[in-house]
């Protein structure tokens, strides 16, 4: 299914998905048609789902990244609560970039990017905590990404 050549192509695309098949061909010493056909195969197999952009959030005014762990109260009167439903609502909130459904001590983990602490406070206390079923939150500001 996937061999070492495919893995090398994938590794290169993860580093920079803007690379052309010609650039990949030169880097990996593989014919350009082989690169093209293998990328096409990886897309068809669903290994490559899409191509994306990594943003410099500071230049966009979002300098405060944080993780918010959320515990869900599944016993809200008159409402059926699920992790998936709450996660879908969370994903729609401006400033929320990633949402994960978890096992363990928390039910959902959210990565947020905001411009300042005031915006983080508003996002957590006014938006996240007002979603029916959100019981508790614990916020950790990310000091540095390594």
Question: Could you give the topology of this structure?
Answer:
Layout: H1 4-15, H2 21-28, H3 32-44, E1 64-72, H4 83-91, E2 96-101, E3 108-114, H5 117-127, E4 134-141
Antiparallel strand pairs: 1-3, 1-4, 2-3
Helix pairs in contact: 2-3
Query: What is the helix content?
Result: 25-40%
Strand order of the largest sheet: 2-3-1-4
Query: Tell me about the biggest sheet?
Result: 4 strands, antiparallel
Roughly what fraction of the amino acids lie in strands? 15-25%
Shape: elongated
Brief characterization of the structure:
By secondary structure, this protein is α+β, with helices and mostly antiparallel strands. The chain contains 5 helices and 4 strands, in the order αααβαββαβ.
Written overview of the protein:
With 146 residues, the chain is an alpha+beta fold. 36% of the residues lie in helices and 21% in strands. It has 5 helices and 4 strands, in the order αααβαββαβ. Strands 2-3-1-4 form a 4-stranded antiparallel sheet. Helix 2 (21-28) crosses helix 3 (32-44). The chain starts with a helix and ends in a 5-residue tail after the last strand. The model has no long low-confidence stretch (mean pLDDT 94).
């Amino acid at each position: 299914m996937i061999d070492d050549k495919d893995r090398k192509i994938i590794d290169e695309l993860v580093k920079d998905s803007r690379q052309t098949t010609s650039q990949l061909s030169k880097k990996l010493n593989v014919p350009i048609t082989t690169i093209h056909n293998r990328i096409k195969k990886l897309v068809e197999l669903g290994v490559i789902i899409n191509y994306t952009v990594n943003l410099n959030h500071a230049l966009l005014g979002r300098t405060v990244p944080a993780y918010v762990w959320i515990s869900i109260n599944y016993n809200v009167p008159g409402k059926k609560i699920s992790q998936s439903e709450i996660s879908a609502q969370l994903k729609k909130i401006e400033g929320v970039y990633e949402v994960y459904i978890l096992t363990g001590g928390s039910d959902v983990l959210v990565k947020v990017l905001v411009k300042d602490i005031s915006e983080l406070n508003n996002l957590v206390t006014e938006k996240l905590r007002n979603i029916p079923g959100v019981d508790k939150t614990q916020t950790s500001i990310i000091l540095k990404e390594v």
